[in-house]
Amino acid sequence: MSEPLLKVEGLKKYFPIQSGVVSRTIGHVKAVDDVSFEVNEGETLGIVGESGCGKSTTGRMLMRLLEPTEGTITFKGRKISELSNKEMRAMRRNIQMVFQDPYASLNPRHTIGKILEEPLIVHGIGNAAERKKKVSELLKIVGLSDFHAKRYPHQFSGGQRQRVGIARALMTNPELIIADEPVSALDVSVQAQVLNLMQDLQKELKLTYIFIAHDLGVVRHISNRVAVMYLGHIVEIADSESLYEEPLHPYTQALLTAVPVPDPDFKREQELIQGDIPSPSNPPSGCTFHTRCPFKMDICTKEVPAYFEAKKGHSVACHLFNEERNDINPIN
Ligand SMILES: Nc1ncnc2c1ncn2[C@@H]1O[C@H](COP(=O)(O)OP(=O)(O)OP(=O)(O)O)[C@@H](O)[C@H]1O
Ligand SMILES: [Mg+2]
Description:
single chain; 332 residues; binds magnesium ion; 8-stranded mixed sheet; Rossmann fold
């Protein structure tokens, strides 16, 4: 098998919590705490979890907008930390981001044409005529027209603005797009249009996506694989089909009960999990989910669960599933 496009190993981001006039560090927010995953060329990896679980922080580290506290990121076989400045610039062109709120991420005083041209100027790509041609090409690709280049962000609807956000991300011909809740701010009807556009673009341009979302419903149809995050950890990662058909982690099961199901006879045994997410500056001992888990056992408060590969491509970090306990493991 060929190597993955992106490989993340033991990635951590601890933000210092400072206090007092001399800014003494009194603790850390463990925003991302030992995350590992791979993304293969041409696929979509969904990353899902409640607010504050570290999804955006993970995305920002991949973009090098944030320096990891620990861990390695390997893109196209090269460790990012070992790249020369020149290689780093090339890599930055190759990984682009689409943001949740296109309005906040588009400069309101610039025309769409100028906004789209900017990444080319930053990376020193093409002359004025070539840049103009590329802007026109990308506007068409995302379903807009040449005349839109002269307009300003406020003259667009939310869906159109996200089309501009997507066009901007594509200007430098990237291979990997990190989409951080790209449809969360849009009306449901518009969400489907933008998701369809992203799927079409993926096929046509052979893009690889990391698609971040709050709930499992949004990523279901676009993701080949899904990683579920809780308090800075990936608690379960699997092929989409396996994850949605046989969710193993109690947290994944709870997230799935929150997804509306069209079948009225459909019932799940559990109610949605109760209670608040603990603070990532003081995470619970053992399995960090134990404070909200309906299946909590003694061991859960004491030991961090290791990953258990329930079947090929489906791993879960939960004490209900491990080598010794595979008698109660539902898939074998
Ligand atoms: N620059 C920062 N300094 C300190 N703490 C931060 C910083 N950025 C994020 N955090 C904290 O890190 C944790 C993870 O944040 P992050 O934004 O990655 O979560 P998220 O999963 O993207 O949440 P959301 O769904 O709300 O976007 C949160 O507790 C957040 O408050
Ligand atoms: Mg976020």
